[in-house]
């Protein structure tokens, strides 16, 4: 729009980036002229100037013990906010973020802050986005910002007295509105009711009781959703796809099966929450095939088997043996085989471990 008036694009861009500063100066000047504080409007008031003194942290174990729970929660929130902000800005520039380096940087900054009477250090979403929207792209911008803050706190804090709190809040709100994704709520509703409930619960608690409560509730809801999903994983009866050597779900494809061989694929690692579910799936498969003599658990999606799942598999092996049915495994990943090697289940197993499902199917149907 400004190009039509002969205004250079670079000047227009720079002017737009300075709008928050211009708005702040204008609000301060209006506050001085109109006396906002006398009319009952909240202003920043007197802002302490100068640099904080260098001090040694208090080495008081009782104080540390009292502060430990709160300090731990502050550290978690600081890290989550920092890494979320870093990933948001990195996504805008198609860059990668190293969580380990971010954690080391936060730790070093907080150690230095402890010796200068400073507050806990974290990457602020509002300040980072405001800095990014102003055109900052390199760490040099942070150096200039630090020098600017230092000079300002020494010489110019008096001019902040008349700045309305509402003006500062407006600048922060505008800065943090850009990452707010309302469409994410709609996508969560369409894709998963569990994810939608977890998201809405976290938002409601955060707005009602604060970030700390929202973070704890969000983590708890995420764990509950994860445990619910993994406790009832997808299980499919598998058969050989017609005319190929591949295997697929019998409910989704036309497959070749054998009345003596039944193959079940469990699409999840086996551990305590889903051990009973595995038992139910196996017994249902046995009940549906009275002539079955071989059961194959296709483990292509199993990345781990814990002790509870191993105990369940041992019991299944024993019960199936009583019915003259062998228990076999196929496509077991090498590291899972290593976990099974020293277990009693492996030594008592009535069937075999086949490297491929094709080999298991062809071998057992001829047995």
What does this entry look like structurally?
59% of the residues lie in helices and 8% in strands. It has 367 residues and is of the alpha/beta class. It has four domains: 1-45 and 128-180, no CATH class; 59-123, no CATH class; 191-231; 235-366, Transcription Regulator spoIIAA. Strands 1, 2, 3, 4, 5, 6 and 7 form a seven-stranded mixed sheet that branches. Strand 4, helix 11 (272-288) and strand 5 (294-298) form a beta-alpha-beta unit. Helix 8 (182-191) packs antiparallel against helix 9 (193-209), helix 9 runs antiparallel to helix 10 and helix 11 (272-288) runs parallel beside helix 12 (307-322).
Gist?
With 367 residues, the protein is of the alpha/beta class.
Give the overall pLDDT as a whole number: 83
Indicate the CATH class of the largest domain. Alpha Beta
- The secondary-structure element order is HHHHHHHHHHEEEEHEHEHHEH
Assigned CATH architecture of the largest domain: 2-Layer Sandwich
The best one-word shape is elongated
Proportion in β-strands? 5-15%
Overall strand count: 7
């Amino acid at each position: 729009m400004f190009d039509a008036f002969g205004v250079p694009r670079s000047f227009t861009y720079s002017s737009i980036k300075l709008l928050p500063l211009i708005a702040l100066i204008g609000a301060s000047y209006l506050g001085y002229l109109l006396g906002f504080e006398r009319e009952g409007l909240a202003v920043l008031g007197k802002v302490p100037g100068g640099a904080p003194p260098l001090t040694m942290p208090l080495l008081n174990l009782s104080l540390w013990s009292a502060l430990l729970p709160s300090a731990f929660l502050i550290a978690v929130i600081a890290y989550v906010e920092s890494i979320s902000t870093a990933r948001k800005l990195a996504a805008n520039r198609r860059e990668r973020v190293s969580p380990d380096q971010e954690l080391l940087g936060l730790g070093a900054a907080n150690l230095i802050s402890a010796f200068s009477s400073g507050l806990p250090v974290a990457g602020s979403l509002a300040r980072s986005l405001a800095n990014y929207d102003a055109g900052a792209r390199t760490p040099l911008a942070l150096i200039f910002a630090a020098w600017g803050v230092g000079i300002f706190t020494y010489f110019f804090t008096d001019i902040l007295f008349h700045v309305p709190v509402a003006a500062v809040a407006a600048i922060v709100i505008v800065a943090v509105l850009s990452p707010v994704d309302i469409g994410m709520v709609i996508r969560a509703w369409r894709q998963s009711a569990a994810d939608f409930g977890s998201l809405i619960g976290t938002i409601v608690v955060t707005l009602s009781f604060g970030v700390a409560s929202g973070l704890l509730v969000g983590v708890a809801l995420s764990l509950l959703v994860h445990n619910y999903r993994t406790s009832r994983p997808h299980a499919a009866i598998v058969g050989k796809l017609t005319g190929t050597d591949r295997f697929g779900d019998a409910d989704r494809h036309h497959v070749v099966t054998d009345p003596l061989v039944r193959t079940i694929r469990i699409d999840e690692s086996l551990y305590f929450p889903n051990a009973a579910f595995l038992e139910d799936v196996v017994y249902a498969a046995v009940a549906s095939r009275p002539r079955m003599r071989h059961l194959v658990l296709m483990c292509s999606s199993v990345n781990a088997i814990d002790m509870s799942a191993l105990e369940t598999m041992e019991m299944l092996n024993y019960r199936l043996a009583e019915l003259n049915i062998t228990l076999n495994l196929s496509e077991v990943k090498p590291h899972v085989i290593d976990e099974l090697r020293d277990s009693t289940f492996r030594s008592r197993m009535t069937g075999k471990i086949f490297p491929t499902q094709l080999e298991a199917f062809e071998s057992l149907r001829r047995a």
